[in-house]
Structure formats: structure tokens, C-alpha cells
Amino acid sequence: MELLLKCGVPGLGDRGDIVKVKPGYARNYLIPKKMAVKATDSMKRVIVEENRLFEIKEDKLKRSLHEVAKKMKDLSCTIVVQAGEEDKLYGSVNAHDIAEAISQQGFEVDQKMVLLEEPIKMLGVYTVDIRIHREIELPVKIWVVKE
User: Fold this and answer.
1) I need a labelling partner for 90 at 20 to 30 A (CA). Which of 3, 39, 107, 144 fits?
2) C-beta of residue 7 within 8 angstroms of C-beta of residue 35
3) DSSP secondary structure string, 3-69?
4) What fold characterizes domain 2-68?
């Protein structure tokens, strides 16, 4: 069965691609979840127009986020924590703590945007990447200091 994808499907294709799938997968998963439609000429024209509008919106969003990234370029946050012997923390500093510290400086950041491989467990200065868009990442300096 030929389908036209309305959004990107991992392992299958991107938005606007025409793919061939088994009828059961199309009827039971892709079409009910509105991820795809049957590939007809009229639907192809509709998807082309939707893609054009989507690209315009995406371009506007990227431009506005580039402006935010310029403002956040030299951002540095200090997180005050309790620490014990040898500068080990009681607990850890995680993505939620970092997002909260950045938000206190006037930038709306969700903890999902903070790219932290593992929680910080020692005092020091760390560079953490913040992904404000799937194509825009910027480094933020995090100072973890003793209370």
C-alpha cells in the first residue's frame, strides 16, 4: 500500500515521503495516528502546500531562536549546594536544577533541553549544552559552589 507521510516516522521516512508499507501497518497504525494518508494526487498537492507552510514557520522559529541564542551566548549560572569532604556533593546537580538556575536568569528553559549525560556530583565549573531547537545547541557554564 502506498502512503504519503504527514510527519517523520523513524525507520520509514520523513515528512512528505511516499512509502510502501503492508496494508495492516497502514490501517492499524499509520492512518489512525494521522501519521500518513493514502498517496493520491490531491493529497500530494495538499502535503506539498503543508510542507511549504511548515518550512516558513520553521524558518521564523529558527530566526527567533538564533536571537535568543545570541543573548544566551555568554550565560553563566551559579548553583549553591552542600558539600562534604573532598568537594563531594550531598546529592547531585541534575538537569532540573540547571534548568531552574537558567530560568532564574530570565530564559525559559525546560529540563529536557539540558543535555547532561550524568548528574554532577563534585564542586567545580562545568560546561553543559542546552538544546533550544533540534538544530541549535549552545554551551552554558555552570559553577557548582559550596554553601
Assistant:
1) 107
2) yes
3) EEESS-BTTTB-TT-EEE--HHHIIIIITTTTSEEE--HHHHHHHHHHHHHHHHHHHHHHHHHHHHH
4) Ribosomal Protein L9; domain 1 (3.40.5)
Among 3.40.50.1970, 3.30.420.10, 1.10.10.60, 3.10.430.100, name the CATH number for the domain at 74-146: 3.10.430.100
- Residues 143/76, Cβ–Cβ less than 8 Å: yes
Rounded Cα gap, residues 61 and 55, in angstroms: 10
The overall pTM is greater than 0.85:
no
Integer Cα distance of 67 and 84 in angstroms: 41
Whether the predicted pLDDT of 69 surpasses 90: no
Q: Where are the domains of the chain?
A: 2-68, 74-146
Average pLDDT of the segment spanning 110-120: 92
